[in-house]
Design goal:
The structure is a single chain. This protein is of the alpha/beta class. The chain has a domain of 194 residues: 2-Layer Sandwich (Nucleotidyltransferase, domain 5). The chain contains 16 helices and 22 strands. Strand 14 and strand 15 form a beta hairpin. The chain is globular. The N and C termini lie far apart (58 Å). InterPro entries: ATPase_NBD, Carb_kinase_FGGY, Carb_kinase_FGGY_CS, FGGY_C, FGGY_N, Glycerol_kin. It catalyses: glycerol + ATP = sn-glycerol 3-phosphate + ADP + H(+). Key enzyme in the regulation of glycerol uptake and metabolism. Catalyzes the phosphorylation of glycerol to yield sn-glycerol 3-phosphate. Pathway: Polyol metabolism; glycerol degradation via glycerol kinase pathway; sn-glycerol 3-phosphate from glycerol: step 1/1.
C-alpha cells in the first residue's frame, strides 16, 4: 500500500500541496502566492486561471522536490477558501469573471434587501447563516446580473458555479475533457443555498437569488470512499491518485485538530480567524451572532455540525502593515517590532477593511485606529495589530459561550499566525485560558489529508487520528483579571468607532 497521502490547500493568498505520512507528519510541501486584485474599495478578486496554474505547479514541484511519485500517494484531499465564487464555461474552461473573494463586500445591498423583506429569516432557518455579502449566493447573483451574457449562457448549459474547491476539482479531473462538477456539504453549507436538514440545494433559496439549479455542482460527503475522480495533472503522469476528500478550509482544520467530539473547539489564524465548536449531529442555531455550519460528513455517517465565529481580517491586517504601510518587510517582523514596546500605548486598531463579521455583522464598518497621540510609534501600531487579532477572537468566544454554555478550558490554535509567539501569548492573556499549538500547525491541509486517508482505509478511524495529535507549545495567561477586563473594555469601546462608515441600504 502507498505510504503517503496528499492534500491541496487552496487558500486566500496562496496555494500549497502537502504530503503526510501515516503518523500525520509533514513529508514535503510547496507553496505559491497568487495576486490579490482590488478594483475598488471593498472589492476583492482572484484570477481563477492563476489559481489553477498555481495548484498544478505546487503539486508538480512538491513531488519533484521530494522525489516521490503519484504511485506513492494512497489518496488526495482538497481544502479551500470557502465562499469565493467562480462562474465558468465548462466547454471552454474560461471563467466569465474573476473569482469574487469571500472578503468582498459588493453584494451588501443584496444582503440588506433580503433582510428588509423577511427572506432573511428563511435563510437563517434553512441554512444556519444570515444574509451577508460574505456568502456565495449573492456573489452568484451579482455575476448573473452584471456580467454580460452569463444568464443566457446558463440556459445553454455553458455557465456553471463552484467555490474554489469545485473549480480546482473540475480542472484536476480533466476540465473540458470530462471534469467532475462536485462540491461537498461543508462548502455547500456556505452558499445560503443549501438546507441543513436535507443537505441539498433548496429551490426556495435559489429563487431568492435568481439562480438556476443547473448551475450548481452535485453535493457529496466530505470524505467519500467512492471518490470524486482521479487527478490528471502532468506531474502525476506516473500514476493516477484518487481524490477522496473535499472540505472547506475551516472544517478541514477542525478535522486536523481532531475536534471529533461535541464541545471541542479550534481557532485557525490565517487571512481571517475562524473559531469552530463541534456541536454534534444536531445543528445548534445561534442567538449571539454566530453561524451554524456543517463541520464534516464522512461517507454515509450522519453529518456533524458546528457553531462558527468568522472574523474577516486578522493575518491580512499584518499583510497590510507590510504591503500598504511598509512598516515591516515580512510578517515575522511584526513580532520583532511589537516587542519594542510593553503595551499598545493606548491605541486600538479595528481592522474592519471588509466590514465586521461575527458576532457584529456590520457591513457598514470600516477600519479604524483610535487613541492616537504623538507618543505612539510604529511599534505601538504593530502591537495593536496583534492585539486586534486576539480581541476579535475573544468576541467570538464570548458569543460561543452564550450560545452553547461551553466554557473553554483551553483553546487549540493553528494557522500561520500561530508562529508569532507574542500574538499567542497575547491571545492567552486576553482570553484568560491556556492556548495550545499542535506540532503540525498547518492543520487545514492535514485535515484534508486525514479525510482522504480515512476514505481509503489509510487510517482506520478517528481514534487513530487522535493518537497522532501532539502539542508543540502551550501559552499560559500572565495578565491579571483586572488588567484583562480593562483592556477588553477599551477594545469594546474602540470597535464602535468603526461602525456606520459605509452605506449598505
Amino acid at each position: 500500500m502507498p505510504e503517503f497521502v496528499g492534500a491541496i490547500d487552496q487558500g486566500t493568498t496562496s496555494t500549497r500541496f502537502m504530503i503526510f505520512d501515516h503518523d500525520g507528519a509533514e513529508v514535503a510541501k510547496y507553496q505559491l502566492e497568487h495576486e490579490q486584485i482590488l478594483p475598488r474599495a471593498g472589492w476583492v478578486e482572484h484570477n481563477p486561471i492563476e489559481i489553477w496554474t498555481r495548484t498544478s505547479a505546487v503539486i508538480q514541484s512538491t513531488l519533484q522536490r521530494s522525489g516521490l511519485q503519484a504511485s506513492d500517494l494512497a489518496a488526495m484531499g482538497i481544502t479551500n477558501q470557502r465562499e469565493t465564487t467562480v462562474v465558468w464555461n465548462p466547454r471552454t474552461g474560461r471563467p466569465y469573471y474573476n473569482a469574487i473573494v469571500w472578503q468582498d463586500t459588493r453584494t451588501d445591498r443584496i444582503a440588506a434587501a433580503l433582510e428588509r423583506d423577511g427572506r432573511g429569516q428563511v435563510i437563517r432557518d434553512k441554512t444556519g447563516l444570515r444574509p451577508e455579502a460574505y456568502f456565495s449566493g449573492g456573489k452568484i447573483q451579482w455575476i448573473l446580473e452584471n456580467v454580460d451574457g452569463v444568464r443566457e449562457a446558463v440556459d445553454r448549459g455553458e455557465a456553471v458555479f463552484g467555490n474554489t474547491d469545485t473549480w480546482v476539482l473540475w480542472n484536476l479531473t480533466g476540465g473540458v475533457n470530462g471534469g467532475v462538477h462536485v462540491t461537498d456539504v461543508t462548502n455547500a453549507s456556505r452558499t445560503m443555498l443549501m438546507d441543513l436538514d436535507t443537505l441539498d440545494w433548496d429551490d426556495e433559496l435559489l429563487s431568492f437569488f435568481g439562480i438556476p439549479r443547473r448551475m450548481l455542482p452535485e453535493i457529496r460527503p466530505s470524505s467519500d470512499p467512492a471518490g470524486y475522480g482521479v487527478s490528471s495533472v502532468a506531474g502525476l503522469a506516473s500514476g493516477e491518485v484518487p481524490i477522496t476528500a473535499i472540505l472547506g478550509d475551516q472544517q478541514a482544520a477542525t478535522v486536523g485538530q481532531v475536534c471529533f467530539s461535541p464541545g471541542e473547539a479550534k481557532n485557525t489564524y490565517g487571512t481571517g480567524n475562524f473559531l469552530l465548536l463541534n456541536t454534534g449531529t444536531t445543528p445548534v442555531r445561534s442567538k449571539s451572532g454566530l453561524l451554524t455550519t456543517v463541520a464534516y460528513k464522512f461517507g454515509d455517517q450522519p453529518a456533524v455540525f458546528a457553531l462558527e465565529g468568522s472574523i474577516a481580517v486578522t493575518g491580512s491586517a499584518v499583510q497590510w502593515l507590510r504591503d500598504q504601510l511598509h512598516i515591516i518587510t515580512s510578517a515575522a517582523q511584526s513580532e520583532t517590532l511589537a516587542r519594542q514596546v510593553e503595551d499598545n500605548g493606548g491605541i486600538y486598531f479595528v481592522p474592519a477593511f471588509s466590514g465586521l463579521f461575527a458576532p457584529y455583522w456590520r457591513a457598514d464598518a470600516r477600519g479604524a485606529i483610535v487613541g492616537l497621540s504623538r507618543y505612539n510609534t510604529d511599534a505601538h501600531l504593530a502591537r495593536a495589530t496583534l492585539e486586534s487579532i486576539c480581541y476579535q477572537s475573544r468576541d467570538v468566544v464570548e458569543a460561543m459561550q452564550q450560545d452553547s454554555g461551553v466554557v473553554l478550558d483551553v483553546l487549540k490554535v493553528d494557522g500561520g499566525v500561530t508562529a508569532n509567539d507574542l500574538c499567542m501569548q497575547l491571545q492567552s492573556d486576553i482570553l484568560g485560558v491556556p492556548v495550545s499549538r499542535p506540532v503540525v500547525s498547518e492543520t487545514t491541509a492535514l485535515g484534508a489529508a486525514y479525510a482522504a486517508g480515512l476514505a481509503v482505509g489509510f487510517w482506520r478511524d478517528t481514534d487513530e487520528l487522535r493518537a497522532h495529535w501532539a502539542q508543540d507549545r502551550r501559552w499560559e495567561p500572565t495578565w491579571t483579571k483586572d488588567q484583562r477586563e480593562k483592556a477588553y473594555a477599551g477594545w469594546k469601546k474602540a470597535i464602535t468607532k468603526a461602525f456606520d462608515w459605509s452605506e449598505t441600504d
